[in-house]
Design a protein that fits this description.
Layout lengths: L1 E5 L4 H12 L3 E9 L20 H8 L3 E5 L19 H15 L3 E3 L6 H14 L2 E3 L7 H10 L3 E7 L6 H4 L8 H11 L10 E7 L5 E14 L6 E13 L3
Parallel strand pairs: 1-2, 1-4, 2-3, 4-5
Antiparallel strand pairs: 6-7, 6-9, 8-9
Function: Amidase that catalyzes the last step of diphthamide biosynthesis using ammonium and ATP.
EC number: 6.3.1.14
Enzyme class: ligase
Length: about 250
Amino acid sequence: MKVIGLITGGKDSLYNLWMCAESGHQLVAVANLKPPAGVDELDSYMFQSVGCDGVAYVAKAVGLPLFQGIIKRKSVALDQDYRPIPEDEVEDLFDLLSKVKLEVGATAVSVGAILSKYQKNRVESVCARLNLHCLSYLWQRDQQELLKKMIDNSFEMIFIKVAALGLTPVRHLGKPVKKFFMELIKLNEQFGFNICGEGGEYESFVVDCPLYRKRIVIDQSEVRIHSNDAFAPVGYLRLNQLHLEEKHS
């Protein structure tokens, strides 16, 4: 099948896209929804907005055309099952994928959903209306096993947002997820922490993986604090300047 990769720059969307390629599908484009200009992080139930400044570099690294839309609507339909409502942000995704399908003749969409039925149901609604197959290889996988697989398959990812007890902006932002793998397991054992961040505990950005023809280098970034809570401070990394460099074997 000809696949559009829904990507955020994070590990889940890119690992699922890699699995599509490994399963013999043809990758034809990547697509992303970003906040309006001047907004780093959007309060969205559906879309990761942190790291959107790096998505263009991800597309170049993968070597695929990027189709990027703006999140113009809000979360309106909040039930787990989704019925299309013109005012809901899911319809921004419908508009974007409608355009991409026409441009590249795609027949399927790659989705990095692991645990959220809310998100998966909405992407499936869009795909059903556009007659696109929804490819979700990560769905309901064991998170510890899945993150280990990502690391073992040379996915180099960093924390770009933290929002949970046990994670702090100073200690974790910009650092490799691999370095803290055992720590994430301990947090899971102590607090029920989602090892892949499925509860919003953290967001990631992939700087290198088998899909990339070149690796992404972050030249300049900025830590921004959203909430300075004493127990679970929330902060994110703004990617101000990046470049691609050749891989060295």
